[in-house]
Specification:
4 helices, alpha+beta, GTP Cyclohydrolase I, domain 2, about 30% helix, 4 strands, single chain
């Protein structure tokens, strides 16, 4: 059996962007994750050690947000790769990375990319 863990609107200040100024001054970003994993003995044994620990998921995302990238596509890819490396029981990840108030010359709430693997 599989189960899904959802972490919504994790917010970070980071320095991702294609413009040099973005990489100097930074911006606010959000990350939304939907992780499907093999349940195994997690529920039957009530075993946290066998679960996809969402504290560790958050820490993994935070680590990846600290590594400056030029595109949010690369940021999302790094997050997905790191989570698959850390949790072998993961079967699918949907990762949405959003840059809040992007510098596009007009009023815009956010720009986002969604990657699934």
């Amino acid at each position: 059996m599989e189960y899904t863990i959802i972490l919504d609107r994790m917010e970070f200040r980071a320095f991702h962007g294609c413009y040099d100024l973005e990489q100097k001054v930074g911006n606010r970003f959000t990350v939304d994750l939907e992780i499907t994993a093999e349940l195994g003995d997690v529920a039957r044994e009530d075993c946290v050690e066998k679960a996809v620990n969402y504290l560790w998921v958050y820490e993994t995302v935070r680590e990846q947000m600290r590594t400056t990238q030029r595109t949010i596509e690369r940021v999302a890819t790094n997050i997905i790769d790191a989570l698959y490396d850390r949790f072998p029981q993961i079967r699918r990840i949907r990762c949405k990375v959003s840059k809040l108030a992007p510098p596009l010359g007009g009023k815009l709430d956010r720009v986002s990319v969604v990657l699934e693997r």
